[in-house]
Design goal:
The protein has helices at about 55-60, 85-90, 110-115, 125-135, 155-165, 185-200, 235, and strands at about 10-20, 25-35, 40-45, 70-75, 75, 95, 170-175, 205, 220-225, 225-235. The radius of gyration is 18 Å and the shape is globular. It has 7 helices and 10 strands. It is of the alpha/beta class. A hairpin with a 6-residue loop joins strand 1 (about 10-20) and strand 2. The mean pLDDT is about 90. It has a 6-stranded mixed beta sheet with strand order 6-7-8-3-9-10, with helices on both faces. Strands 2-1-4-5 form a 4-stranded antiparallel beta sheet, with helices on one face. The longest helix is centred in the C-terminal third of the chain and has 18 residues, at about 185-200. Bound molecules: adenosine-5'-triphosphate (ATP) and magnesium ion (MG). Magnesium ion binds near residues 53, 54, 98 and 175.
């Protein structure tokens, strides 16, 4: 397998098409996507419901296989990749799902700790300490031993954020991470992600409908009807008014 050259974009997508369904039911949902994201960049993707944002994010995250075009993550080609290669990609990034996808049979801290169990070098004590620390930062220090069904929607979403951030991944893919949060908690969550990105050189691709957080992006991209139709440096659009 090729090694990653650090001057290469962390995400490099060219001529990517994606279809759901087979035969007569086959429907194209992504059309000729071209996108490059550099290490350390925070990119926010917006666009109407049904435009293909989640679909694109799941392809970048190695959650679906596909056969048309090219999508390279850290130098690895995902188009036509095997199930094993996709599993490796999934392990190396932090994914925050639009529906939070917590394990209902595990407590809050067990849900977060689980994503560290894929990293053999971390001791059990450190796993617990790191899980606790990130949950405290996210305001869930009092809820460590609760089960998801006794949490509010926003609290569950914060657990999902903690789970994605706890292993300090190089790439964070976040699908509407602030959708169930009030203004203050939403802001806290994205600022925490931003801080992590800047401190550790991690890259973030975040999908949102939340206009209040667009300013944390270095770049905004816009999806419509399966096409990526605009890609701007943030300051071009959101330049501060004098
Ligand atoms: N598993 C699936 N099977 C068939 N079609 C699907 C599937 N998932 C999504 N689609 C279709 O693909 C298109 C893009 O969906 P996607 O979930 O990527 O949109 P989105 O931009 O994330 O929307 P939202 O903002 O509502 O989350 C939609 O037309 C949707 O109906
Ligand atoms: Mg979506």
């Amino acid at each position: 397998m090729q090694t990653f050259n650090s001057s290469e974009p962390i995400i490099s997508i060219s001529n990517l098409d994606y279809y759901f369904g087979k035969n007569q039911l086959r429907k194209q949902v992504l059309f000729n996507i071209n996108l490059e994201i550099n290490a350390g960049e925070i990119v926010i993707m917006t666009g109407p419901s049904g435009s293909g944002k989640t679909t694109l994010l799941t392809l970048v995250g190695g959650l679906r296989s596909f056969q048309s075009g090219s999508l390279r993550i850290l130098g690895k080609e995902l188009c036509g990749a095997s199930a094993r290669q996709l599993t490796q990609v999934r392990r190396s990034n932090g994914y925050i799902f639009q529906a939070h996808n917590l394990h209902e049979s595990l407590t809050v801290i067990q849900n977060v700790r689980m994503s560290l169990e894929l990293h053999p070098k971390i001791s059990p004590e450190e796993m617990l300490a790191r899980s606790k620390e990130i949950l405290e930062v996210l305001g869930l220090g009092e809820r460590l031993n609760y089960y998801p069904d006794s949490l509010s929607g926003g609290q569950k979403q914060r657990v999902a954020v903690a789970r994605a951030l706890v292993s300090k991944p190089k790439l964070i893919l976040a699908d509407e991470p602030t959708a169930a949060l009030d203004k203050k908690s939403g802001r806290d969550v994205v600022e925490l992600m931003q801080k992590l990105a800047k401190e550790q050189g991690c890259t973030i691709l975040l999908v949102t409908h939340d206009n209040r957080i667009l300013d944390i992006a270095d770049r905004l991209i816009y999806m419509e009807d399966g096409y990526l139709i605009r890609s701007n440096v943030n300051s071009d659009i959101y330049s501060p008014t004098p």
